[in-house]
């Protein structure tokens, strides 16, 4: 039957081998189209299956009709025998025999159709399961392709912008170096001022005890010593008075 070839063609595919080989967009489209065609074959197989099932139902109805005829003619044959119509009973018996042959033939057809139906159902279930596997593989292939495209785009963008990033980094390094140069110059200026400027001279005068700072210190010490002496004298006078 044509339906067998349609389904068996689908079952020949290796879903994993096909799915893993899908790496470009054209292959994805081809693979997707093959899945669409396979689904159409399965739908056609379902229609063929319904036709076979209809024939089985027709055979069953014919068997039921023949069995009714068989019972009727058997009853008529018995009635003919009871009424001593032997020749007529024999003729009816021939009719019964023909009906039994027809029932046997229809039963064989029905059983054959039932076997085909069972096999077709198994094949269709297997084909539908395989289709689901193919659809999952196609989805994975599309996702993989999207990742490849994104990676290629990022790589291309990084390649194009690499020189710009390098230039920006070099500019930043130049700015840092300029800031460091400025800081070093300020530190050097402070060092030179400490060695040759007014600060150096002031330090030398202070070290020699010359200038305002040493005199001011001596004045402060003299003032404090005088206050201490006055306080001590006042305390002594207070202690000499009688109680």
UniProtKB/TrEMBL annotation:
Amino-acid biosynthesis keyword on record: no
Annotated protein name in UniProt: PspA/IM30 family protein
Species of provenance: Massilia atriviolacea
Coiled-coil ranges (or none): 28-83, 117-189
Pfam families for this protein: PspA_IM30
Entry keyword set: Coiled coil
Keyword Coiled coil: yes
Assigned protein family: Belongs to the PspA/Vipp/IM30 family.
Entries under InterPro entries matching the protein: PspA_VIPP1 (IPR007157)
């Amino acid at each position: 039957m044509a339906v067998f070839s349609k389904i068996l063609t689908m079952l020949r595919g290796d879903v994993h081998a096909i799915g893993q080989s899908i790496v470009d967009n054209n292959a994805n489209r081809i693979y997707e189209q093959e899945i669409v065609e396979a689904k159409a074959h399965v739908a056609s197989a379902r229609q063929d299956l319904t036709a076979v099932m209809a024939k089985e139902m027709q055979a069953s109805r014919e068997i039921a009709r023949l069995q009714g005829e068989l019972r009727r003619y058997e009853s008529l044959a018995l009635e003919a025998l009871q009424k001593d119509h032997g020749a007529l009973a024999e003729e009816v018996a021939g009719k019964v025999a023909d009906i039994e042959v027809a029932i046997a033939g229809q039963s064989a057809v029905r059983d054959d159709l039932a076997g085909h139906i069972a096999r077709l159902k198994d094949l269709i279930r297997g084909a539908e399961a395989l289709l689901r596997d193919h659809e999952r593989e196609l989805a994975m292939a599309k996702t993989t392709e999207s990742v490849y495209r994104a990676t290629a785009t990022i790589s291309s963008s990084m390649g194009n912008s690499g020189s710009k990033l390098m230039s920006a980094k070099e500019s930043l390094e130049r700015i840092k170096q300029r800031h460091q140069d400025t800081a070093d110059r300020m530190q050097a200026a402070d060092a030179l001022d400490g060695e040759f400027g007014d600060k150096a001279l002031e330090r030398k005068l202070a070290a020699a005890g010359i200038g305002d700072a040493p005199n001011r210190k001596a004045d402060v010490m003299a003032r404090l010593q005088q206050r201490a002496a006055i306080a001590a004298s006042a305390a002594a006078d207070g202690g000499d008075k009688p109680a």
